Amino acid sequence: MLLKVNRLNLYYGNKHILKDISFTLSEGEILCIVGESGSGKTSILYSILGLLPRKARVEGEIIFKGKNLMDKKLIENMRGREISMVFQEPSLYLDPLFKIGNQVKETYEIHFDKKDAKVKALESLRNVGITDAERVYNAYPHQLSGGLKQRACIAVATVCNPSLVLADEPTTALDVSVQSKVLKLFIRMKEEGKSVVLVTHDFGVVAEIADRVIVLKDGQIVEEGDVFTIFDTPKHNYTIELLKSI
Fold first, then answer.
1. Which residues contact 176 (CB under 8 A, 6 or more apart)?
2. Contact assessment for residue 187 and residue 107, using Cβ atoms and an 8 Å cutoff
3. Residue-wise pLDDT tens digits, 29-44
């Protein structure tokens, strides 16, 4: 077992955001978390990666490779190296003042030898399907299409070869053809033994890549199962309504 989340509760003041969230993730598995906007999907990812605001109060356990990620110093050392994240909107995540290559390279340099950084950055760009990696390496974010920017973000997230990739609605702003290419990248990560937790509201995405599915509503897990069970025999009315909306 790679990751175990046990009775995770998240509070902002008196507001109870996540309520007794528990699940596990194995190596080489893709877990999709689905639910409408505001259900708490992104908050789960931010809790795992330790990116919550200071006012947040977290209870429970997040165990990764046998270590408790509630230890702030531990998660800081693992962030980017062992666990990484692909954010929803690449235009907001990528710094417009720096070339793509510098942003990919920087992530590697934090954890490894700087001498290898450019080679690893170019390799990471190629691994996410960017054929003209040198051009993209030397480009600024505004010079790239939405699909290329998202692939650059995935290159940033995978340049250190992490065991776990968290993805927050990574295909929302992309057209259908580019979306398919991005999803294939996550499938390839799985084939390479990496694990992925992908947040989405799109059951079409779930059908394409998920091994298991968690259905979230108002901060609570209302249903969980393998992708075939969720699609063929959903039990909760909320899951049934979501499937009808495809």
1. none
2. no
3. 999 999 988 899 999 9
What's the sign of the alpha-carbon dihedral 147, 153, 157, 161?
A: positive
Which residue type occupies 236?
A: H
> Could you report the per-residue pLDDT of 209-234, keeping only the tens digit for each?
999 999 999 999 999 999 999 999 99
The answer to whether 223 touches 230, Cβ cutoff 8 Å, is yes
Helix, coil or strand: residue 85:
strand
At residue 16, what are phi and psi to the nearest 5 degrees?
-95, 105
User: What is the rounded distance in angstroms from the CA atom of residue 56 to the CA atom of residue 40?
Assistant: 13
Indicate the pairing of strand 212-217 with strand 30-34.
Answer: parallel
Nearest Cα residue to 79 out of 57, 117, 107, 44: 107
CA dist., res. 158 & res. 165, Å (int): 8
Residue 178 banded pLDDT, cuts 50, 70, 90: confident
Q: Is 214 helix (H, G, I), strand (E, B) or coil?
A: strand
Q: d(Cα 238, Cα 78) in Å, to the nearest integer?
A: 36
Burial class of residue 111 (count of CB atoms within 10 Å of its CB; 0-12, 13-18, 19+): middle
Query: Cβ–Cβ contacts within 10 Å for residue 132, how many?
Result: 11
Q: Tell me how far apart the 2 most distant CA atoms of the chain are, in Å.
A: 55
The residue type at 71? D
CB 178 within 8 A of CB 146: yes
CA 150/CA 42 separation, integer angstroms: 18
* Residue 46 tokens, joined: 């931010």
